[in-house]
Amino acid sequence: MLLIDKYAYFNRLNHVHPVEKMTLSLFLLLFSLMVKDAIVSLITFIVMSAFIIWGAKIPLRYYVKLLLLPGFFLLSGIATILFSFASIETAIPHVLWSAEFGSWKVFITENNIKVTTGLIFVVLSSISCLYFLTLTTPVNAILQILRKLKVPQLLIEITEITYRFIFVFLETALSIYQAQSSRLGYITATKWLHSIGLLISSLFISVFQRARELTIAMESRGYTEDIMYIDDNYQYSAVNWLIIIAMIAGIITVYLLFGGIL
Amino acid sequence: MDELFFKIDKLTHQYVDGTIALKDLSVSIKKGKKIALLGNNGAGKSTLFQHFNGILQPTTGSILFKGEQIKYNRKFLLSLRKQVGIVFQDPDSQLFSGNVRQDISFGPMNLGWAQEKVHKQVEWAMEQTEVTALQDRPIHFLSLGQKKRVAIAGVLAMNPDVFILDEPSAGLDAYYSKQIMHILRDIHQGDKTIILSTHDVHFAYEWADEIIVMSDGEVLYHGDPVTVFHNEALLNQAHLEKPWVFETAQQLLTKQLLWDEGLMPRSKEELFQLLK
């Protein structure tokens, strides 16, 4: 089972109305992307992380692990932005550091630093907003809201079935893997390659089989055009809305008063 | 005269790979019956079930539903499937929604019922199958037995006239097999017919009004659940065992330890009653 998915169902905020969680996280996400201000991003990151750790009670260790994942991409992205190259004769203003390699030089300018720090802050705040949503809200709750917002049915149904199938395939792949390794399919490198090939091809076949079986089962339950369910019941809470509005107002005030300080 | 749900006449089904799954099969399904379909693996039980739901089309032969020839167009199939519900053997191929309650409500919503009725039916089906406590769980957190019960609830909630179950007790422990047997006894009412395939002869013997025995794409026997177990040759051909209640009663009768009242006991309780 995917832990990230498990937390989405079992966390302390799962009874909170998904609209409330979506409003908060998406507003903060869009706002910090729009204003691209370091202090706004930093506050967003801190607030969202606090909600994840203390509000939803997601273990800190797990959250840090999750942050490391995009952190890796962030680092590799930063490296290319931070360092610039030019031929050795080029004169460059505001250089903070440089090194020469033959007829080339590598250097970092003040501007590079500015862009990089800005990027780090924006990325961290956006990630924390998205993690807040994914760690507290199950996929089907989000889809239920998207349905209400009249997002095209086709898109929602594809998402829904894809989501379900991720787990079917993880399970299938795992059981094939276990069956293979219990018969020593992975003891040497060549056997490994052979077994993994078999695993992938049989998984591929089972994709089609599963899809066909599911279509049959859905049709035999009267499926025609739209997938319809009874909605899950969530209650709006006045307190939550007050908190959300206060936070939105707060972050806007911070931006107006202290924007651009960092 | 009993009214019929299905009248199948000389049905042959050949798969694209050339396998002949059903051979010249003729069978009638009456209203208001509990029917158990017995047969070895590969006897064609699942293929026959798919014909009941219009999923497969006959290679030759005809199928009448309530006296009307099944047509394989969208409209007819939709109305057929609203009246005939089928629970597949592998619950993973049937369940797809986010959580248990949603999945169970999928069928009833497709029937176009009002919200309250859908709610009521879903609640009822969840109670019957004892999955109410799981209703907010996503499907991928369930065990096989739980998935199986959810799959049954999903069709049960649609309240079909003909309720078909492909091996409902396979993969379930004794407690839940028995539970499902009780459900199937309770929900059987009036004109509704339940058809299930099973390898559990004890269950079939106790529960069914009629037993159909299939082997190699043909119907070997269709009739009451007692006569079939007297026919040794047939049992051998279809790889069937005798139910222990039946076998014990037979032994006791030959040794004259049991009063012969002309009726064979169908359950443990009935057998014990006779012993007194």
Can you give keywords for this protein?
heterodimer, A: 262 residues, mainly alpha, three-stranded antiparallel β-sheet, 9 helices, B: 276 residues, alpha/beta, Rossmann fold, 2 domains, six-stranded mixed β-sheet, four-stranded antiparallel β-sheet, 22% strand
Helix content of chain B: 25-40%
What CATH calls the topology of the largest domain in chain B is Rossmann fold
Order of helices and strands of chain B: EEEHEEHEHHHEHEHEEHHH
Structural class of chain B: alpha/beta
Radius of gyration of chain B: 20 Å
What order do the helices and strands come in, and which of them pair?
The complex is a heterodimer of chains A (262) and B (276).
Chain A: H1 3-9, H2 18-35, H3 38-55, H4 60-82, E1 84-87, E2 95-101, E3 104-109, H5 110-136, H6 139-148, H7 153-182, H8 189-220, H9 238-258
Antiparallel strand pairs in A: 1-3, 2-3
Helix pairs in contact in A: 2-3, 2-5, 2-9, 3-5, 3-9, 4-5, 6-7, 7-8
Chain B: E1 4-14, E2 20-30, E3 34-39, H1 45-52, E4 60-65, E5 68-69, H2 74-83, E6 84-87, H3 100-110, H4 115-128, H5 144-156, E7 162-166, H6 174-186, E8 193-197, H7 201-207, E9 210-215, E10 218-223, H8 232-237, H9 244-254, H10 268-275
Helix pairs in contact in B: 3-4, 3-5, 4-5
Description:
The complex is a heterodimer of chains A (262) and B (276). With 262 residues, chain A is mainly α. Chain A has helices at residues 3-9, 18-35, 38-55, 60-82, 110-136, 139-148, 153-182, 189-220, 238-258, and strands at residues 84-87, 95-101, 104-109. Chain A has a 3-stranded antiparallel sheet. The two termini of chain A are 42 Å apart. Chain B has 2 domains: 32-53 and 74-232, P-loop containing nucleotide triphosphate hydrolases (Rossmann fold); 243-276, no CATH class. Chain B contains 10 helices and 10 strands. In chain B, the strands form 2 sheets. In chain B, strands 6-7-8-3-9-10 form a 6-stranded mixed sheet, sandwiched between helices. In chain B, strand 7, helix 6 (174-186) and strand 8 form a beta-alpha-beta unit. The longest helix of chain B has 14 residues, at 115-128. Chain B is globular, with a radius of gyration of 20 Å. Chain B starts with a strand and ends with a helix. The relative contact order of chain B is 0.15. The model of chain B has no long low-confidence stretch (mean pLDDT 89). The chains are: A mainly alpha (262), B alpha/beta (276).
